[in-house]
Design brief:
Oligomer: single chain
Number of helices: 14
Order of helices and strands: EHEHEHEHHHHHEEEHEHEHHHHEE
Largest sheet: 9 strands, mixed
Radius of gyration: 19 Å
Shape: globular
Strand order of the largest sheet: 3-2-4-7-1-8-11-10-9
Strand content: 15-25%
Structural class: alpha/beta
Length: about 400
């Protein structure tokens, strides 16, 4: 590990599934115990806690736990805590935890994401639908909901439509993302859906928001994931080699809307990606494993371009050449991603990247993986992180 850098020292994921009926705190406790065991730490070692976005009662199952409930349930005695409702997307708690341990606020920070989206939704209430909790819409949402753009699938569909028009991408290109990640999922016993997915199956699935179909959308689940971020000196005493946080990026140089970007073929990811590479001597060619947010399949090509793995408008060819699937030069979302593995809002992607760097990904293991890049978020929110196992 490079001296002077915060590090990830442990990760854990609960048993996940659909409609488990299991309370969120039980998922969280299971994920926390697994992360502590991974790091070789006890609960007494944890002196910081962070989450995104904090407890949210107006969106069923989207964020049922706050830092206070988790502190109490786990019996933690913390010196520092944070719940980040805004900022660099789901990456926020990891990023602020890294800053906390580097400024002496804590030595080991437990970062968590817990969801019970699958169990909480019904015919009239879904966390992914704006207004599902009956809250009054404000800000940019107030311009979208009145015209029927209720879901991020609608907003992502606009972006995909524009990208298709500008660069000649087709549904088959997005199908390569979905079917490739499903092949990874078949090697991951924790993935929610492992049934083979062929291109004909993908194209025949029902449309959700043109041009995005059923298999272009991630899968709501119940579950939790925990990531432990440690100070450099504390990390050296943990069970596994520390994964150095070599660089982070969270730039945002556009307005905070999904639909009013000057270029709808880009996202906030492009600003975050530029910031990431400006803070390190590593380059895209040094990366072994990619973990890219796939709330919708169109986000994967946009993140590929944002992080410089190919040029603007070139992602369709980059994908068609087999670069991101099993056996590719830049294997992406090797646990199946959120399209097949289940939606833990990016924490599952980071969990998988860490397993790869520790050589613990079993049948889907990328040979001698040492460096990973993770990009979380869609639309205008984004955070990027580069990890390295020395």
């Amino acid at each position: 590990m490079s001296m002077g850098k915060a590090a990830i020292t442990g990760v854990g994921m609960s048993d996940i599934g659909r409609n488990t009926g299991r309370p969120a705190i039980l998922h969280l406790a299971e994920a926390a115990e697994r992360a502590l065991r991974c790091a070789g730490l006890s609960r007494d070692d944890i002196d910081g806690i962070a989450t995104y976005p904090g407890k949210a009662d107006n969106t069923p199952g989207m964020s049922p736990l706050g830092t206070g409930e988790v502190r109490n349930a786990l019996g933690l005695k913390t010196r520092w805590h944070s719940a980040v409702p805004d900022g660099p997307a789901q990456m926020a708690p990891i990023m602020v935890a890294a800053m906390a341990v580097m400024t002496g606020q804590a030595r080991h920070v437990l970062c968590f994401r817990a969801l019970t989206e699958s169990s909480s939704q019904d015919a009239t209430r879904r966390a992914s639908i704006s207004g599902a909790g009956k809250a009054r819409m404000g800000g940019w949402l107030s311009w979208l909901v009145p015209v029927g753009a209720m879901s991020a699938s609608n907003w992502a569909g606009w972006m995909a439509t524009r990208y298709f028009h500008e660069f000649g991408m087709t549904r088959e290109h997005l199908g390569m993302v979905a079917t490739g990640q499903r092949r990874f999922a078949q090697q991951n016993p924790t993935a929610v859906i492992r049934k083979p997915l062929e291109m004909d199956d993908y194209l025949a699935a029902r449309m959700i928001s043109t041009p995005l179909g059923l298999f272009d959308c991630d899968i709501p689940i119940d579950g939790a994931a925990v990531v432990i971020v440690s100070a450099p000196d504390a990390a050296r005493d943990c069970r596994l080699p520390p994964l150095s946080i070599e660089a982070m990026g969270s730039g945002l140089r556009s307005q905070e809307t999904w639909d009013q970007r000057a270029d709808l073929t880009t996202m906030g990811a492009h600003d975050a990606g530029a910031d990431l590479w400006a803070r390190t001597d590593f380059r895209p060619g040094d990366v072994d494993v990619l973990a890219l947010y796939d709330g919708f399949s169109i986000f994967v090509p946009l993140w590929l371009e944002a992080l410089g793995f190919c040029g603007h408008g070139e992602a369709k060819d980059f994908i068609a050449e087999g670069n991101i699937g099993p056996g590719g030069r830049f294997p992406t979302n090797t646990g199946g991603g959120q399209l097949s593995g289940g939606r833990l809002h990016g924490f599952g992607l980071l969990h998988e990247a860490c397993l790869q760097l520790w050589g613990q990904a079993d049948g889907r293991q990328v040979e001698d993986a040492r460096t990973a890049v993770c990009g979380m978020g869609g639309g205008f929110i984004a955070g990027a992180m580069l990890l390295n196992r020395a």
